[in-house]
Amino acid sequence: KIDKSGMIEAIKNMPEHFEEAKRLTEEFMKGIRIRNILNVVITGLGGSAIGGDLVRMFIAPKATIPVIVNRDYFLPAFADQNTLVIVSSYSGNTEETLSAYDDARLKGSRLIAITTGGKLKEKALEDGIPVLTIPPGLSPRAALGYSFIPLLIIIERLGIIPGGVSREIEDAIKIMKEARERFSPEVPEAENPAKGLARQFHKKLPIIYGSSGTTEIIAMRWKGQINENSKAPAYFNIFPELNHNEIVGWDGPKEILKGFQVVILRDEGDYERVQKRIEITREIINDKGGEVLEVWSEGGTCLARMFYLIMLGDFASVYLAALYKKDPTPVNLIDLLKKRLS
Ligand code: F6R
To answer: How far apart (Å, rounded) are the C-alpha atoms in residues 86 and 152?
Structure first.
């Protein structure tokens, strides 16, 4: 009943998307020769951009050159012929991304396009730009495996991080396969953490707190998945920054605060001072009458822990859609906005 439009199926298939994306990218990289790159700009929007953010966060401790994510019509001024611009658009038709592609051409940057087709593929083929073609037929946000894995492998193969991401990818696939069993619709609510979370979020404003460098992009993903799949507002913020502004808001009117459900994403990789900040923040919010849940990541490697939490949030967002009696797949308001823009 929940899966009329196939969103649960698409989420469940994320491990297979990883495997297929790895195969496609390894094949693609055989034909790529790119040297003398001083920085990388990944440009895209929404479901296509978040794969870039996850890569940026994951490689930050070991990247030898700057890698940034751009979500705009234009590239930053530093982009030049020593910049590799990776243009990522699942549909290949996103206005801002096509404009950033044109800007990269004007600036003489090196380019790679990742897409299923659309205008981006047409333009790139015409301009002789390498295109990594990924399989069509998914919602862009459900194609995270295809927006994340290619970027990670491209960055590794270009020598921007030390070689060897295969083991991490294997571990992530393994933990996602376990997670999809635990969170699947057949598992009853009492034993299913994803259904439990949906219940906690129901009729509340979900506020997801992550931490810089570990769970920040996962918090952003949970928020986006609740918005797009559950058709509900949600909000996220990041430690330690939120300790310097947002925390003061918990001194606000009780009648507003009681409509919030805070979830703090926790990871063993968080810096000890951040862990302490999280614990104190939790106490303060509780003292102010706020509802706080903690969700710990599971899995051995950093990548596995990230994708365990992503799976949990993705499943929870579809169960929340069911509670709100919404179809998780259509994004009517994005479509309406695009129509009004055209
Ligand atoms: C829809 C979704 C959106 C799109 C965004 C950009 O499922 O997740 O956030 O990803 O509108 O579109 P693409 O990815 O086709 O460039």
So the answer is: 11
Task: Name the pTM for this structure.
Answer: 0.97
Per-residue pLDDT tens over the stretch 29-42: 999 999 999 999 99
**Gap from CA of 154 to ligand 1 centroid (Å):** 21
Query: 106-109: long-range contacts (C-beta < 8 A, 24 or more apart)?
Result: 107/75, 107/79, 107/80, 107/81, 107/83, 108/80, 108/81, 109/41, 109/75, 109/79, 109/80, 109/81, 109/83, 109/84, 109/85
Is residue 149 within 8 Å of residue 142, measured between CB atoms? no
CA of 48 to the centre of ligand 1 (A): 6
Q: Return the number of other C-beta atoms located less than 10 Å from residue 168's C-beta.
A: 17
State ipTM.
0.98
Spell 145-161 as b/e; 16+ CB within 10 A means b: bbbbbbbbbbbbbbebb
Which structural domains are found in the chain, ordered by start?
Answer: 7-164 (3.40.50.10490), 187-323 (3.40.50.10490)
What atom in ligand 1 is closest to the CA of residue 46? Answer: 9
Judged against a pLDDT cut of 80, whether residue 4 lies above it is answered with no
